[in-house]
Amino acid sequence: MKCCQIQNGKAHEKAIDPQGKYIVVNSKFVSTQDEIKKYSNMNISPLQKGDIAFVLSGVPNGKAISRAFYVYRNNMYTLNQRIAAFTTKADIDSKFLYYVVNRNPYFLRFDDGVGQTNLSKSDVLNFEGYYPTYREQPNISLLLWRIDMSIATNQRKLEKLQELKKGYLQKMFC
Questions:
Q1: What pLDDT does 130 receive?
Q2: Quick check: 126 pLDDT over 80?
Q3: 31: alpha, beta or left? (left if phi > 0; alpha if psi -120 to 50)
């Protein structure tokens, strides 16, 4: 993976504080799309705006392995162990790289469905992505983001309609 610099996170188990200032980026945080959070007052492994946090370890057939999180703000996140941070080089748009690596089939193939999957640094370094020109990358990532937002909006509508249906069925058969 020549498109970015890679760093590994550090253990935060002894630094967890519910009143902490920094969000600890761990596999649960990334796999729940930042819904489940732990905090720390120590920024042991800081993440910067534009970095991509990438889960290196997960349970068999789990939803965390190779899941990515795009960092939107400085001084807010600290990287936990078994999570990598990708910092892109000048010719790669970081949002575009986020879409390339997030749940990429290359990384998912390491999950044998039996034991815990642990992606090694060499597994990550051996990833070969194919990238359009730098000028095209932001446009592609914007299109993908818009599709994601449309999916999320329609998912919320579907959930509301399912609840409405459930309510009608309960009223009909009570």
A1: 87
A2: yes
A3: alpha
